[in-house]
Structures are given as C-alpha cells and as structure tokens.
Amino acid sequence: MRTVQLTGLRTLELRDVPAPAKPAAGEVLLRVDVVGVCGSDMHYYRTGRIGSQVVQYPFTIGHECAGTVLEVGPADAGHVDAKHAAVVLSPGDRVAVDPLIACGQCDQCLAGREHTCRNQRFLGCPGQVPGALSELLVMPARCCIKVPPGTTQVQATLTEPFAIGLYAYRLSCLSGNTAHAENPAHAGNAHGTLSVGVGAPALILGAGPIGLSVLSAIKAQDPRRPVYMTDIRPYRLEVARAMGADWTGDPRKIDLITELREQVPLGFAAAFECAGEQETVDQAMLLLAPGGQLMLVGIPEADRIYVTPDIMRRKEIAIQNVRRQNNCTADAVAMVASRQVNLDPMVTHQFALSDTKAAFDTVADYTDGVVKAMIFME
Predict the structure, then answer these.
(1) Does one domain contain both 226 and 134?
(2) Torsion sign across C-alpha atoms 132, 138, 143, 145
(3) Same domain, 218 and 104
C-alpha cells in the first residue's frame, strides 16, 4: 500500500509498504478516505518533535482522518468492554476516527480520563502508532464512530479537531467559576453579561482550526455568550467572523489590551490560548477577570512558557491544560451530522496524497490563506 513518511525535517516521501495484517478481534480494517493536516503535525514536520516525543525516521504521521470499513475482525466478546458493547460495524460503513487508543484498564481510564491513559497509543505519535497518511489502517472498532448519511468524509475528519474544542469548552464549564453565575454580585460588565461564569465573555487567542473549533463549541452550546477572537492573520479572522465570533482583532494592528479592556472592562471569564505562543499567554493573563480561567489548548513549539506570578496570584487565575478530546468524538460527530455546528468554512485547501509535501509546506508556512488543509487518497 502507499503511505507518506517523514524521512527528515520538512522531508516527506511517498512509499510502498506492506499492507497491515488482517484485523484481530475488536478491530476493523479501514480504507482511509481523508486526512486533515493538524498543527501538531507541523511540530514533527518542522522540528521533529513535540517535547519528549521525538520522531525516529522514517515515520508516518497524521491523526485526523475518516475512512470506510473494509473488513471487521472476528467476533470476540472478550475484546469489547461494557462501555463499548454497542460498537457494531460492517464493511462499507463510513467512520470518523478517534485517534486515541486507550487501554481501558488503568487508573486513568477507570476514572474517565482515557486521554491521560497510562498505556495509551495515539495515531501518528512517535513510539506509539504509525499515522493515518496511508491507504489502509487498522483501528479498534471502539475508536470508530459511524458517520450518518448526509455527512461528508471531510466533515467527519473535522470532528477530530472539533472534539478537542468541545472538550476544552466543557472543561472550562467544570471550573469553580461557574458557581458565580447565580450570584448577582458577579453580574454586570459593559454589555450586561457576567464577568465570570457561564454566559460570560470568552476570549480565544488564535483563529486556526483549534481556535475555530472552540468557537464553534461555545456558540453551539452557549449561543448568547460573547466570543472575542484574535489572530495575526486577517484571513483567519474573516473565517472566525463567518463562524460566529462577535469581535475579532489583530494584535499587531491594534493596542489589543487597551481595546479589549474597553470592550470588556471587568475582564474575561475564560481565555482559550490556541496559538501555543508566549505572546498570547501573556495577553490572556492581562485580559482575564479575577478568578478567570486560562485554558491552554495550543501546543507550544518552545520547551517552556512562562506566567507572571504577580498577575496570576493577584487575580487568582486558574490554569487548565487541555489534552485531546476525552470521549467527545461521538458527540462531535452527532453535532456535525445534525448541523448543530458548521465546520465547513475552515476548510480552505484540498490535496491529493501524492501532493502531501505541498500540503504540509502550505500549512507550515501559512501561505495562500490556509486555515485547514485536507488530503484525499486518490
């Protein structure tokens, strides 16, 4: 089968490799239809690593994907736990793929935290599982969510980043800040909305696919919540406005801190940092309300980011890291299929598998107005 492998920094090769073995019990063999190019793929492409996860060449990356079931492994009830007992797939089914393969048995999985499974394997993660940029892929059936009729494979692929945005939004709602929502003492900024809590103004820093996914999640589940978005690329702010952002701004063209302090004088309840940059972390700290939440969603390319203790302590800012989807993929598929969210505007580019290098260069260099690039198997 054909696969695209990283063979060095910014070097991709289309190769023929052996097809995967037949699916075992609890697994399915997929024909990969569409693969999305993710920002985390760019770390491996540009630097060869994300933190301690270092690529050993050659390696196949890619984890956002949708496919079609070609073959189902033999039935074996011992391979399907009670939580996933309803997973029934047949050849011909179209599926969205949750790229996390959790063990289901460790303390984290049993606590409902499969995304921090101690024995996890993740598509396209060095040392774990080769990625999705291949014609064929074997996955556990429990990682495959059937795609309803009327939903395209591109839309199915977009449910992977959207599930991250959905999880980030839901995690922000679990904060103690939501307890203030019923307290009149916490109501009343310039727009008559809460300074903290559900329904309060939210700030998203970075209007790439993950930032747009957070925006879509907020607007789908809390439509009256004002959302402010920033980015240094005007075309991405245009997409953000088309997808429901109430205000957008480019921090390199305006005095962002002054402008947003005028717009939301009591500060933001939550700031979703989706750019992975020190600059946006600093902006979030300055713009959060006392008791606000700094949601770290983006993956920094740098090994360290810093916070200012004086600001963080005086405001009692809560910092919450966000990792992957944590069982939000099925809900993401349902929301896309029901048209509760429309993620189509973020797809700006389409490439064939043989043009994967061009796709990665376009995303890596932010050229040609790219927001989300999709790769199709010919």
Answers:
(1) no
(2) positive
(3) no
> Does residue 259 form part of some domain?
yes
Range list of H helices, the chain: 39-47, 107-110, 153-173, 209-221, 234-242, 256-263, 278-287, 309-315, 329-337, 356-364
Domain contains 270? yes
Q: Is 126 exposed, middle or buried (0-12, 13-18, 19+ CB in 10 A)?
A: buried
Q: Is the pLDDT of residue 76 over 70?
A: no
| 281 backbone dihedrals φ, ψ, rounded to 5° | -65, -45
Single-letter code of the amino acid located at 366: Y
25 closest CA partner among 70, 85, 80: 80
Structure token digits, residue 108: 């984290």
pLDDT in tens, 87-129: 689 999 999 999 999 999 999 999 999 999 999 999 999 999 9
Residue of 243, 247, 115, 128 whose CA lies nearest to 168 = 115
Give the Cα separation of 268 and 292 in Å (integer).
7
Q: Is the pLDDT of residue 253 over 60?
A: yes
Q: What is the mean pLDDT of residues 26-46?
A: 96
The candidate with the shortest Cα–Cα distance to 144, out of 94, 201, 79, is 94
Number of structural domains the chain divides into: 2
